[in-house]
Write a structure and sequence with these properties.
Largest sheet of chain B: 4 strands, mixed
Radius of gyration of chain B: 31 Å
Shape of chain A: globular
Radius of gyration of chain A: 18 Å
Shape of chain B: elongated
Largest sheet of chain A: 6 strands, mixed
Helix content of chain B: 55-70%
Distance between the termini of chain B: 20 Å
Strand content of chain A: 15-25%
Number of strands of chain B: 4
Oligomer: heterodimer
Number of strands of chain A: 10
Number of helices of chain B: 16
Structural class of chain B: mainly alpha
Order of helices and strands of chain B: HHEHEHEHEHHHHHHHHHHH
Order of helices and strands of chain A: EEEHEEHEHHHEHEHEEHH
Helix content of chain A: 25-40%
Largest interface: A-B, 30 and 22 residues
Strand content of chain B: under 5%
Chain lengths: ~250, ~425
């Protein structure tokens, strides 16, 4: 398996902060991997995802993007990724179709291809009947599916998902996770954060566990569970990060 | 280019869905321009149409009261209503209840007092010139008439009315005095040729407005209000555009855009183009109302300036000033409420000090200095130069310079803030 992203001693310190949000993080992400990024509140998950998606720059260290073993530029990298933020980062006053057409055009997808892609995504995510209705009238689950559809409109080879199933009903959650599984089978690398550890344990191959900005574990879930002699991911999480509140 | 069109299309869709924003940008200024123009037009007419209604209560037993009333009427400045039966107390009641603004009280001994004064002066003059023997100096004769007014009338208006009546009274007194001089010297009346020289051949004052073009634009409520409220409408887009930017920032749409290989400046550019179109549409709608609808309801027609290129440039700069200000507010505001509240209040204050509501020349001098900080003032100055002063480029230059500097300042601050927020 080839690496698609490599991090070498990546640190991040925000200008107004006295401490590092990320400190000397090094690991790599392999093509086709389903990587879960976990950690308590304030551990540095969002900062790590933001650096990986080129939303913010690291203070020090190096992030290398690769394709078939070759380094790629940030612009080429952005063309190959999809990002599904935790917030509904789209226009609720518009319909799913209008949102997808807008974001798809910004990716430079041609009109005919874009229309067929929109049709396909709406069908797969169960939004075909409402694709011309304003999103502001939708339920939370439907909005999550629109959020996901926009993130994958460009058929990305690497997909970043920040809490993709937060606040949705079981049916929507099931549909979203099933579709992500399908995408992964087609070769999409998925980097995912969630507080639903059961869902994550079922979905991810590998995890990155962060605490206080430091990498405290990075391996296969099964290996880590066995290594720490715990029952599941939640027990592993508590063992490695402690049981005290993180507010 | 396709990306730019897609962004503009998205902005237009968002705008169409923003019903409150559309009402604030189009309906509110249209209503304001109608209401304020109608209200101000009656004031302009009061001053400009030489037709000030005044009640004359002439109690004079002689003929001079009628002469004064006649002079006022002949002047064309006043529309006289004779109500000689009113008492002084009734005049006050009439003014308060009958929607009348002014009343002139001429006392019953007006002719007697005025004649006595003229006789006294003429006798003294002839005595001074030794034409007649020493005349006994008669005591000063007080001659008073009274001007009653509605308390809502502004002092400067009252003073000008009072001055106007005073000048007619002066003319009457002069005539009487000269008449008395002739009578005292044994003539029956003033010779006709002399009367012509004295009273008909007066120096006239030509009123010429300072204007660099050959045409004379008459300042009226339309010429002030149409550009003024168009500017206000453009700047009020802060509610729509400001909250549009805040919403996109808070929803995370801007963050998502950072993960798309497309220039963020394109997003900002699309907003500018969309709202430039909106601003020019606002301007066109309000100008068309002034040109075609106002005359239908008895308001003065908007006369467009001869410098069309100047009009285009001032309009574009005014629109960009409004857009840049709205973008600045949208970028710095932390919430929608902040953007709407701060944006609206700021525009109202800048409009007030900038002369949108009342022209700056009627403000105290320190307020006129403060008014210079308002971009709305400079936009209005530009339109005043075009509509009322002939639109000479030399006169337009300070306005153009200020607006360009204002746009640059707003854009630099906006880009700096977005840079700090890591969007650019």
């Amino acid at each position: 398996m080839t690496n698609v992203i490599e991090l070498h001693n990546v640190s991040k310190k925000y200008s107004k902060s006295t401490r590092f949000s990320l400190e000397n993080i090094s690991f790599s992400i392999q093509k086709g991997e389903k990587l879960g990024v976990f950690g308590p509140n304030g551990a540095g998950k969002t900062t790590l995802m933001s650096i990986l998606c080129r939303i913010i720059a690291q203070t020090s260290g190096e992030v290398i993007y690769k394709n078939a073993g070759e380094n790629v530029s940030s612009k080429d990298f952005l063309n190959s990724i999809g990002y599904v933020p935790q917030d509904f980062s789209f226009y609720t006053e518009l319909s799913p179709y209008q949102n997808l057409r807008y974001f798809g055009t910004l990716y430079g997808i041609k009109k005919a291809e874009l229309n067929s892609r929109i049709e396909e995504l709406m069908t797969v995510l169960g939004l075909q009947q409402v694709m011309h209705k304003k999103v502001q009238t939708f339920s939370g689950g439907m909005k999550r599916r629109v959020n996901l559809a926009i993130g994958i409109i460009n058929n990305p080879s690497i997909l970043f998902l920040d809490e993709p199933t937060v606040g949705v009903d079981v049916q929507s959650k099931n549909a979203i996770m099933a579709y992500l599984e399908e995408l992964n089978k087609k070769g999409t690398t998925i980097i995912y954060t969630s507080h639903h550890l059961n869902e994550a344990e079922e979905f991810c191959d590998k995890i990155v566990l962060l605490d206080h900005g430091k990498l405290i574990a990075h391996d296969d879930i099964k290996t880590l569970i066995k290594q720490h002699n715990v029952a599941d991911l939640q027990a592993l999480f508590l063992q490695l990060t402690g049981i005290e509140y993180r507010d | 280019m396709r990306k730019l069109f897609a962004s503009i299309h998205k902005e237009l869709l968002l705008l169409i869905n923003d019903k409150v924003g559309l009402i604030l940008m189009f309906m509110m200024p249209i209503l304001l321009v109608f209401i304020i123009t109608i209200v101000q037009d009656s004031t302009f007419k009061l001053v400009n149409d030489n037709n000030i209604e005044i009640i004359v209560v002439n109690k004079d037993k002689g003929a001079l009261g009628d002469s004064l009333s006649g002079l006022l009427e002949e002047s064309g400045v006043f529309k006289i209503t004779n109500r000689s039966k009113l008492s002084q107390k009734e005049i006050q009641k009439t003014l308060l209840s009958d929607n009348q603004l002014l009343a002139l009280w001429i006392p019953e001994n007006f002719s007697q007092q005025l004649t006595a004064k003229a006789q006294s002066v003429s006798t003294e003059m002839l005595s001074e010139f030794d034409i007649i023997e020493n005349a006994s100096v008669s005591p000063k004769i007080p001659t008073k008439i009274a001007l009653y007014y509605d308390p809502i009338l502004q002092e400067n208006f009252r003073t000008s009315i009072s001055g106007s009546i005073q000048s007619f009274l002066g003319a009457l007194e002069s005539r009487l005095m000269i008449e008395q001089l002739y009578v005292a010297m044994g003539f029956e009346d003033i010779p006709e040729a002399m009367e012509e020289k004295f009273f008909s051949n007066q120096i006239t004052i030509d009123q010429i407005s300072a204007n660099t073009s050959s045409g004379q634009a008459i300042p009226n409520s339309t010429q002030h209000n149409v550009p003024a409220w168009s500017i206000f409408a453009m700047f009020f887009m802060v509610i729509s555009l400001g909250s549009n930017i805040v919403k996109e920032r808070l929803s995370g749409s801007f963050v998502r855009l950072q993960t798309i290989p497309s220039s963020f400046s394109l997003v900002l550019l699309s907003k500018m183009f969309t709202y430039l179109f909106v601003a020019l549409l606002q301007l066109t709608v309000i100008f068309m109302l002034g040109k075609f609808v106002f005359p239908l309801i008895g308001l003065p027609t908007l006369s467009l300036p001869s410098n069309i290129l100047g009009l285009f440039i001032i309009s574009i700069l005014s629109a960009f000033s409004a857009i840049s200000f709205a973008m600045l507010v949208g970028t710095f505001a932390k919430t929608n409420e902040q953007a709407n509240g701060f944006g609206a209040i700021t525009i109202i204050i800048l409009a007030a000090i900038g002369g949108i509501w009342v022209p700056t020349f009627v403000m105290p001098s320190y307020m006129q200095v403060i008014g210079n900080i308002s971009p709305l003032h400079w936009c209005l100055e530009g339109y005043y130069t075009l509509f009322l002063k002939g639109g000479d480029w030399y006169l337009l230059f300070p306005t153009i310079l200020f607006l360009i500097l204002f746009i640059l300042a707003c854009q630099i601050l906006t880009y700096s803030k977005l840079k700090i927020q890591n969007y650019i």
